[in-house]
Amino acid sequence: MHKQIHTAKTQKTRRTPFTKTS
Asked: How far is CA 17 from CA 4, 14, in A?
């Protein structure tokens, strides 16, 4: 799951602030 978050955070870091929530 670490890779998914890393990729998603790089692609939509300002679109979906799920990185801060998760």
From this structure: 14, 6
